[in-house]
Structures are given as structure tokens and as C-alpha cells.
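Apologies for my clumsy wording, but are you able to produce some protein sequence, whichever is easiest, and the C-alpha cells describing how it folds?
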Amino acid sequence: MICPLCAGELKAVERQGIELDYCSDCGGIWLDQGELSELIRRESVAAMLEGQRMLSDARHQREYDQPVVSLFSDPKMAIVI
């Protein structure tokens, strides 16, 4: 395929399972209809999952992951938060 901007050769590259057309001459990236919104959706899901993984790794076995018991002397009055 030919780049519509500079007439250079387009190369097919894949990102998040979506095929994009990339021009190595001008750096342009060309998408078919609907691919941009799908790429944004997939990238945002991947970023969210990575953020959850990083947070889980950072918090793993920290004291604030354990139940907090109030300091009532009567066990019947203890409240787990």
C-alpha cells in the first residue's frame, strides 16, 4: 500500500491484535474505520489491568490488607472494619 501523505510504502504492524498501516518514511499511522476506537478500548483495558496488577503487587501482604479490630475490651463489642 502507498502512504496517502508522502507516497511512501506502508508496512502492516500489529498492536493489541489490530493491524495498523505504518509509513517508515513520514512516520504516519493509518487505520481502517473503527480501528481507532477499538485500539483505544483495548489499550485502556490493558492499562487498567496493569494498574490493578501493580497495585496488588505493591499492597501484597501489607498491614492494611488485614482486618482491623477495634480496641473494645469486651470481645462481644469488637467491630471488624
Observations:
- The two ends are 61 Å apart (CA to CA).
- The helical segments are 35-59.
- Residues 35-59 form the longest helix (25 residues).
